[in-house]
Write a structure and sequence with these properties.
Elements: H1 2-18, H2 69-80, H3 91-122, H4 128-132, H5 137-141
Length: about 140
């Protein structure tokens, strides 16, 4: 008799353990809802400082021909006092130099536009126009 009772108890305990105590719960709990949120995070981007403005000095150009050569030589010897040295350039070479200068101006202007674009995109939304460029840079960028 003791053996049959102990067998029944063991069987009942095994069934109760394997069933996971499901007899105690009346109603299964519903699954929790998962809420997905998309949050934009402002990443601080360090802005590079703009380069110093170009400070070009204006050279003095003299146009010398057969008519004013003697006058030019006397003037240069008087001003320099060290003798006369010529640096000559043909008209076509001067045109090439002027073309190259225009190309450099175009390249710098387009590069400034790229920098301004990236600064406007990466700066925070507050006071963008005031922080983008220092004074007088807008005048240099606009093509004339």
């Amino acid at each position: 008799m003791y053996l049959t009772v102990s067998k029944t108890i063991v069987i009942l305990l095994t069934l109760w353990t394997t069933s996971g105590c499901s007899l105690l719960w009346q109603k299964p709990l519903p699954p929790r809802e998962v809420e997905i949120k998309t949050v934009s995070i402002q990443i601080p981007i360090t802005q590079p400082t703009l380069p110093r403005a170009i400070d070009l000095k204006e050279p003095v150009w003299y146009v010398v021909s057969n008519k004013n050569l003697d006058e030019f030589i006397a003037r240069m010897e008087k001003e320099s006092g060290a003798g006369l040295v010529f640096v000559a350039m043909s008209v076509s070479d001067y045109e090439l130099m002027a073309y190259n200068m225009q190309e450099i101006k175009r390249y710098v202007r387009e590069l400034k536009e790229v920098v301004i674009y990236y600064r406007t995109v990466t700066l925070p939304q507050v006071d963008k126009k005031e922080e983008i460029l220092p004074e007088n840079v807008n005048e240099q960028i606009t093509p004339k």
